[in-house]
Structure formats: structure tokens, C-alpha cells
Model the fold of this input.
Amino acid sequence: MSFFNELNRRNVTRVAVAYGVAGWLLTEVASVVLPTFEAPGWVLQVLIALLIMGFPLALVFAWVYELTPEGLKKESEIQSENSITSHTARKLNLVVIVLLVIAIGMVAFDRFIARDTTTPAAAVTPVQQAQDDGAIPSVAVLAFQNMSTDAENEFFADGISEEILNLLADVSGLSVASRTSAFAYKSKTLPIPEIAKALNVRYVLEGSVRKAGEQVRVTAQLIDAETDRHLWSDTYDRTLRDIFSIQDEIAAAIGQALQVRLLGDEGNEVRAEAIDPDVYTRFLEARYLLRRRHAADMQEANRLLIDVVAAEPRFARAHILLGECYLLNTGEGALVEPKIGLALANMHASLARSLDIGLGGIDMILGNIANENNDPLAALKYYEQAIRLEPEEARPYHWRGLIYTTLGYRDRCSQDSEKALELDPQNPNVHYALANCLLMSPEDFDRAIELAERGPGLGNPGGYILTVVAEELRGDRAAALGHLLHYVEEFETQNEGYAALLAHWQGKDAGEPLTQEQLATVDERVLLFRGETEAVLHRLTQDGLQNNVIRDLWADHYSELRGDPRFMAELEAYGAFEVWRELGPPPGCQVSGDTFKCQAR
Done:
């Protein structure tokens, strides 16, 4: 008897087929069920790995053993006339047929029935009621789960969800939560209604991405957070070259469910931008690396984006991202020197503008460049244009608020920072900026402390130092000391400046003055807290404007320092006077001939 015939006689081939079909069904069911229970991506990966490892074991088991009425027995111990393999074969054939019918039914349901039975927009009465009340539907797009066996494909899952978010953000009839806030809930197992409440949205889009070579599976579901029910869900099995049509179809389904036409501000239909899929994958990876803000990752992102724009020179968004890379990638190991980086960032922003004049990210880059070049007036105008183009984008409000804080405009910085917080409520840097702004006025210290204390929980431990600042400005040294002790112990054990300040406040240094070497290295806030105001003003004249220090000096507590000519000289060098001439001087300052002067309050 041939080896193949022996495999058939022992039902090894039937076991192989049954195992394969059953494993496929189990994987398909798990890929749908696991995201519903918010299981991490590795659960499906482990399941697939176990099924693969179990396959050869099942074949060996079928070869060695035979199922008899008395139970499992080794095949070698059974006489041929007592073997019932033919009877077992009929049972296995039946099992395979049943499994195949179930598999065909699942495929047919997924392809034809499920997609046609999506809840029609007209039947979603809460949406219609919201439209009748004049409310604009608000949506958050959470980071999609990476269900790929390769964990390194996480950038692709993040990238696809961000692309869908950007696509929806361009729709004039939708309010979309910022990426920073929405992605803050990545890998967190919180109920959807709780997430929606924190993000101030009604609807939440979540999903998963599984990529294997050129094959891509994207599963997405839209949830009404008020009822905690699905409005729509679907699964897309395509090749990588169809990834843009998947994005369009998901956006269209959301638009249908929420009864919103996918039109931009200019009245044109919003659609995904299609480029070469391989180049697009590199773009997604570069953006993912840039978001991590680690020096090595930003350098790699820089290299990838150079390749992307070389391959797709008309890809405007890649030019914007490359410009952002050059702005941020200025530390040790940067590809170019900071001045050259600014010039290259400006060049790529200009190229992007020539390709797509309507992209708001261009003005944000140009605004940052203008601010770096000590032209805050131009920076403010760029941010204003960015806000006109993308009114739901938090960053231009945030950055404009920082400039207003540096220039002493307490009301303006508060207004912009409050707006940024409304648009991006989970961004720790926005909390930090608003707290810094509020420290200008003693009546806002409580709110400043509240905002600063939220920052560390959102990923910015610098908020603890703002609580120290607020308590010290308020005159509560004991509270300031408590916050500083916590900060030094938990976050800045290697920061000699804050450790020295802690020793000073605890009386451990007997009030000894800092050495010249210490004066040259410690943080300006440490100098202010120690009363070394002369050293602060001297450093300003030596090192130029330090925005964090200037923002602190606008607090009432330091108003007398603002009358020092050195303080005013630095503001003039920064370009503050040009802004003051156009907007008027901030509180506490006034025109004095051709210049300005600021007095103690």
C-alpha cells in the first residue's frame, strides 16, 4: 500500500482538512469577538500561533491512534479486521461538510447580507433628533487595534485610524475629537460611554487592522455612546492597494449613519488621497515614529520622509510632515544643523502650499519658523490663518496662546488655551499652557494648580513644577515645598537644580549663595525661587529670551522686575514691540515715546 493510501486509510488527510477548516472558523470568530470585548491584539496572535503549532500534532495523533468503541488505541495494536477507520472516515466527512457549510455561510453573510443590513440612516432616530435640534454630530476615532501577528505593524493600525480621523475632520458637518486626546485611550479598557464623555463626543469609532503582506483586513464599528449601541459595523478584506477605498467606504458609512454629507468647506466631496501603497506605508511609519518624540525615532522618520517625497514629490502632506521633522529634529544626532533645519522646513512648507493651498498644517509650520526667528507678529498671523483653515484643530490655538503668554496678554492667552483645551481635553501640554497663563493673575491660582496637577496623569510631569510655582507665588511656601519634594523624589532625582532648591527651602544649605558654576547651570525658576533675580536678568542678556522665564515674570509677584531695562530689551529683541504696536501693550505696560515701559502693579 502506498504512503498516500495509508494516510487516507488512517484518516490523516480528513483530520488535516477538518483541522484547517475548524481553525479558520475559530480565527474568524475570534477576530470579530475579541475586539468587542476589547481584548489586546496579542490574544488573537497567541491563538493563531497555538493553532499552527497544533496542526502537526493533530496529524501525528491521527497517524498513531485510532478511535475505537473501547476508546483511543494505538493503530499498531489493532488487527486489520477489527479496524473501524472506514466508519470513522464517514463521520469525519460529515464533520468536514458541516464545517464547510458554516464557513460558506459566514462568507456569504459577511459579503452580501451583513453589508446590506446596515442600520439605515433614516432609522437612527437619535441622530435625526440631534439634527432637528441643530446639533452637529461629534465623533472620536480611537486608535485601531493591531491584530497582525507582527507587532511592528502597530504603526500601520495607528496610521489607518489617524487617516480616517483626518478624513472625517475635513467634513464640514462633523465635529471630530483631536488625535492626541482620542489616542490617549489606546490600550485602555474603559467603557465607551466614559471615553465619549471625557472627549465630549456623542459617537465613537473603534476598530482593528490585520495586515499580512499585501493582505489587509479592517474591522470598524460606530457606537452611539448615549445608548451604548452599535449604529454600524463592517469588515473589509482587501489588498494593500485598496486601502484608500476602505477609508472612503468607512467614511461614507459613517456619513450615512449620521446623516452627514461628506463635503468639505469648499463644497467638494471629501475623499482619501491615493498614492503608491508602498510609499504610503513608509509615510505612515514615519508619522508614527515622529509622534514618539524620541531622538532616534525622529531621525529615522526624517530619513523615511526624504525617501517618501523623493518617490512622491506631489504628496503635499508628506512635505508638511518632513517640515515638522526638520523643526523638531534639532538635538544630538539630527540630520542637519538647526538653522539649516529651519530653512528646509520652510522650503517643504512652501512646496506643500504650491501643491495644496488649503492644508492648515502649512501655516502651523510657518508660524513655528517665524517664532523661532523672533517674529511673533508673523507667527500670530500664520496661526490665525491655520485656525481659519482648520477651526477644529487645537494646535494653532495652543501655540498662539503660548505667544500671547510670552507677550503678557493674559486674556488672549487664556481664551486661546481654553479653546485648545476644549478641542484637545486629554493633551497634557494644553493643561500646562493654560495653567502657565493663569499664573499671571492671583485670583486664578486655584484653577492653575488644578490644571497643573492633571498634567502628570496625562503624561507631562512638568505640571508638578507649575504647582510649585503657583504655591510660591501665592506665598504658601509649605505647600510649594511639598510639591517640590514630590517632584524631586518621583520625577527629577537627577536634577541638581531642583534638588538644590529643595535643600535651600529645607534650610540644609544655610542659605549659602550659589557659586558662579551653579548660577550658570540651574533652572531659571530655581534662581527666581531663591531670590536670585539679578542672576536671572543677567542670564537673559547673555543667552537671549527664554520663553518659560518671561512667562513666569508676567506674574504680579515679579512685576517690579519688568521695569528693568534688560527685561524690556529682551522683549524688544524678540519682536514683542511690533505686536504691541498692532494690538496695544499688555496690562501693566504703556507707550513711552517710540518705545514701551512696564511698571509694577
